[in-house]
User: Which sequence fits this backbone?
RNA sequence: CGGGGCGUGGCGCAGUUUGGAAGCGCACCUGCUUUGGGAGCAGGGGGUCGGAGGUUCAAAUCCUCUCGCCCCGACCA
């Protein structure tokens, strides 16, 4: 490709709307443009990378027996009602009507469509397992799109579905998918963690996420050098010990002392000796009090799992009405018959804690769990900085990450309500055991940029770079320079290399800056060295360069090219 | 949905407090010079100041409504 003919609108300045590294660079390098909030066009350079990622995905999916299909985005709402997800999805799902007034949804995911095909066609265990996948746009009306292509409302996803006869077969297919995912992300040059995760709206019996570490990520994971890694939504850990002091039962006047920090200081007790009491209201309208150590934070995800339905924090007025005290002075004592009390499992039985007295400006001290009365114990706290690994006892690391893939064992969550059954060897009808496996294609690009970009721009892994080599003739009006550049360009194309020749009539500084910005892994500068018979070969990421004789330029480039691929091809 | 910020040529911004001729830098077009890290000089084109309504002799500027974008939180496969 000749740059003078290409559409690569690079930006010198940082657009004000972009804050995170990948977003800024994708705009500046001319990969994407925004149409409206959370909806982007991929321009030629960005789309070339997307296509390369898709090639890798297809190869690895096909290698484990996947068969590519293509499903529609327009889906009848009736289909979603069959599994109850029309309600579960809520406002995430874009809803539309056709001219007759029939309700449709733009598919946010495709389990129901797959299950519909399966129930229509799959009859016998002999037809199982099936592995179907597609690469298609998903539509989700996110409450807050953000961070460029990291959280968007319309995005390209590879989604695969396995249909199995039993749980063992499902487990086998799930493992194959996991291995394929590892190969895909390895080949894309990414660093990632595989973590235990919450299944959320997808449901099912288990799931794992593939997470790229990045400051711009929205998910926090807990990791340990022993290899343990879990999403904070579900992560477990060994809490630090509280050095509590003995205390007598007492009611203490604590005027205007509302926060854990204030009360801890006022009473002279460590934060961990306070009992943090948080009032929540369940979706069905029941009040629940969550009690944790003062130095711990509640995990709403875990609380929801413990309660079994969605919860929200109580409004201040509700808290006053239910407990008789304003927020800041709540506690579990004497509330056991009014509401459900869930005490975090990290709270020690014998510890004499201080907590709200359910009366304005008063706290109580010296009480312990035995004084609460009826309550339930559950793990409802978020893993905290300093917690120890449940596997090996070492200190956990909390790292922000981008979710690039998620694999689920769905079991019969969809096949049962939708009646997708098959006949087993005995001739009895059984629901199909399903799995679902997603990859965010755009997030792979963003993840790679987040991981490897430097102060000059993007540093693509060669496998997913829009161009593998950029040739920069320093002065296009110099015939000797141009003829050398063109000769190398044509030879590399013949060798199957993706090459961009920057034949623009621009000053060298402009071309160098743009070359660094768009991140081609290899640059060949053709300039003043030509009169001495050399060109410069540059490794973008390593920032190493060497002068090579013109006649060896293609060979040397191919050596570097091979080496960059080799680094990514094997585990 | 709660809180905050911002909408002025393609991009980045000033001007809004205190109403009085729409500006600057980059980019773009033409010419000359220059050619190894975002060139210099000269000339030139381009903006109903997000939109609607109002106040006023006069509105980018004041008032009301509205649309959009970004950030934090809630939410999120």
Assistant:
């Amino acid at each position: 490709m000749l740059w003078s003919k290409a559409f690569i609108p690079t930006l010198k300045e940082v657009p004000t709307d972009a804050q995170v590294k990948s977003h800024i660079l994708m705009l500046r390098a001319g990969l994407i443009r925004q149409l409206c909030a959370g909806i982007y066009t991929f321009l030629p350079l960005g789309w070339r990378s997307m296509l390369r990622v898709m090639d890798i995905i297809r190869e690895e999916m096909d290698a484990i027996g996947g068969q590519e299909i293509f499903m529609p985005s327009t889906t009848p709402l009736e289909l979603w009602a069959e599994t109850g997800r029309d309600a579960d999805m809520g406002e995430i799902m874009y809803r539309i009507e056709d001219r007759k007034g029939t309700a449709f949804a733009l598919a946010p995911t495709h389990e129901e469509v797959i299950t519909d095909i399966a129930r229509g066609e799959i009859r016998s265990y002999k037809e199982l397992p099936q592995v179907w996948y597609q690469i298609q746009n998903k539509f989700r009306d996110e409450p807050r799109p953000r961070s460029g292509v990291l959280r968007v409302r319309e995005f390209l996803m590879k989604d695969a579905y396995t249909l199995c006869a039993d749980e063992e077969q499902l487990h086998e297919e799930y493992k194959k998918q996991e291995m394929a995912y590892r190969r895909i992300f390895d080949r894309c040059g990414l660093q990632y963690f595989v973590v235990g995760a919450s299944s959320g709206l997808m449901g099912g019996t288990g799931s794992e996420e593939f997470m790229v570490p990045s400051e711009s990520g929205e998910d926090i994971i807990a990791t340990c050098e022993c290899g343990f890694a879990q999403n904070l939504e579900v992560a477990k850990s060994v809490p630090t010990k509280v050095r509590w002091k003995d205390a007598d039962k007492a009611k203490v006047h604590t005027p205007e002392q509302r926060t854990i920090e204030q009360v801890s200081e006022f009473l002279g007790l460590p934060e961990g000796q306070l009992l943090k009491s948080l009032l929540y209201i369940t979706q069905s309208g029941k009040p629940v009090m969550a009690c944790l150590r003062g130095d711990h934070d509640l995990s709403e995800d875990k609380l929801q799992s413990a309660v079994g339905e969605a919860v929200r924090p109580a409004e201040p007025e509700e808290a006053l009405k239910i407990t008789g005290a304003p927020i800041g002075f709540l506690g579990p004592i004497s509330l056991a018959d009014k509401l459900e009390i869930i005490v975090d499992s990290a709270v020690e039985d014998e510890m004499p804690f201080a907590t709200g007295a359910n009366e304005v400006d008063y706290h109580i001290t010296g009480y312990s769990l035995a004084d609460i009365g009826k309550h339930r114990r559950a793990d409802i706290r978020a893993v905290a900085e300093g917690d120890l690994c449940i596997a090996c006892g070492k200190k956990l690391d909390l790292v922000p990450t981008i979710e690039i893939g998620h694999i689920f064992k769905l079991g019969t969550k969809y096949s049962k309500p939708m009646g997708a059954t098959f006949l087993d060897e005995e001739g009895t009808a059984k629901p199909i055991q399903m799995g679902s496996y997603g990859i965010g294609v755009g997030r792979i690009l963003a993840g790679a940029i987040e991981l490897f970009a430097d102060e000059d721009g993007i540093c693509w892994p060669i496998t997913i770079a829009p161009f593998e080599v950029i040739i920069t003739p320093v002065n296009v009006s110099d015939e000797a320079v141009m003829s050398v550049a063109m000769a190398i360009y044509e030879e590399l194309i013949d060798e199957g290399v993706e090459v961009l020749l920057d034949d623009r009539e621009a000053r060298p500084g402009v071309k160098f800056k743009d070359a660094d910005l768009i991140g081609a892994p290899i640059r060949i500068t053709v300039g003043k060295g030509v009169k001495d018979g050399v060109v410069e070969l540059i490794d973008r990421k390593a920032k190493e360069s060497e002068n090579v004789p013109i006649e060896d330029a293609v060979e040397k480039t191919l050596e570097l090219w091979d080496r960059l691929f080799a680094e990514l091809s094997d585990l």
The first strand of chain A starts at residue 32 and ends at 36. The first helix of chain A runs from residue 21 to 28. Residues 336 and 374 of chain A are 6 Å apart (CA to CA). Chain A has three domains: 19-235+398-450, 250-378, 469-569.
